[in-house]
Design a protein that fits this description.
Blueprint (H helix, E strand, L loop, with lengths): L1 H27 L4 H12 L9 H13 L4 E5 L5 H7 L7 E6 L2 H13 L6 E5 L2 H4 L9 E6 L6 H11 E9 L7 H4 L5 H15 L3 E9 L4 E8 L9
Parallel strand pairs: 1-2, 1-4, 2-3, 4-5
Antiparallel strand pairs: 5-7, 6-7
The chain binds 3,4-dihydroxybenzoic acid and magnesium ion (MG).
Length: about 240
């Protein structure tokens, strides 16, 4: 029956995707006890299980190392899993500042970073990010900003990231693919609409060179990655 073979083909495709993610994770992003504990912390603490994947974590570490990051800003700490990867990409003497809305999540993130031996270089600041960001101008410029927080605020977070990131620095945002919904446009969901606005803005802003990669959830979600190539906007021809 043709339907049966199509179903089999789809099953095999899904199984292969799972196999690839598992093997690539094991090969390129092996977790130590601190990362495993941070990945397990949301379930143990009744928090949403929405951390980035190990491969995404390794990519953040690579991006931090590639730009020689001395100062990293994270918007949305959750349980500290991405923070561990980011802090492990800092140059010697560097610092991660991670903003977290929830008091509970901030406490869990601090514990994760402490367990990883990173408390000396990673600080979690608790509060609404849009209230905390203005004070960070005194600590700018940052080499890398990672956005992974409430989706409706992504465009506002991008405005701040553009203010706070040096030329040659990176702005990375999670969940910019989301099953394609942000790309379709016209969504009634404020989070989806904001992600679409974020994607369109980073794709077209003349200060940025950007890409979005479907590297999570079997290709259904992923990062937008932007390098700040110029301080001033230029008219695009
Ligand atoms: C959600 C948020 C995230 O940052 C993520 O990576 C996945 C899901 C959410 O709010 O549903
Ligand atoms: Mg996310």
């Amino acid at each position: 029956m043709p339907e049966q073979s199509e179903l089999e083909r789809l099953r095999e495709y899904a199984a292969t995707r799972e196999y690839i993610d598992r093997e690539l994770g094991a090969l390129f992003a092996p977790e130590d006890d601190a990362l495993r504990a941070a990945m397990a912390a949301p379930q143990a603490n009744d928090m949403p299980q929405i951390a980035i994947s190990p491969l995404q974590g390794r990519l953040l570490q690579i991006l931090a190392l590639a730009c020689g990051a001395q100062k990293i800003l994270e918007i949305g700490a959750l349980a500290g899993y991405s923070g561990i990867w980011l802090a492990r990409g800092l140059a010697p003497g560097g610092k991660l500042i991670s903003l977290e809305f929830s008091e509970k999540h901030a406490a869990v993130a601090r514990a994760s970073l402490k367990r990883a031996g990173l408390s000396d270089r990673a600080e979690v600041r608790q509060g609404p990010a849009l209230d905390l960001l203005p004070a960070l101008e005194a600590e700018a410029p940052f080499d890398l900003v990672f956005i992974d927080a409430d989706k409706p605020s992504y465009p506002a977070y991008l405005d701040w990231a553009l203010r706070l990131t040096r030329v040659g620095g990176l702005i990375v945002a999670d969940n910019c693919v989301r099953g394609g919904a942000p790309l379709r446009g016209g969504s009634d969901d404020p989070g989806t609409a904001a992600l679409g606005e974020y994607d369109r803005r980073v794709a077209s802003d003349s200060r940025l060179v950007s890409v979005a990669l479907p590297i999570d959830e079997g290709g259904m979600d992923g990062f937008a990655i932007s390098v700040v190539a110029a301080a001033e906007a230029t008219t695009q021809l």
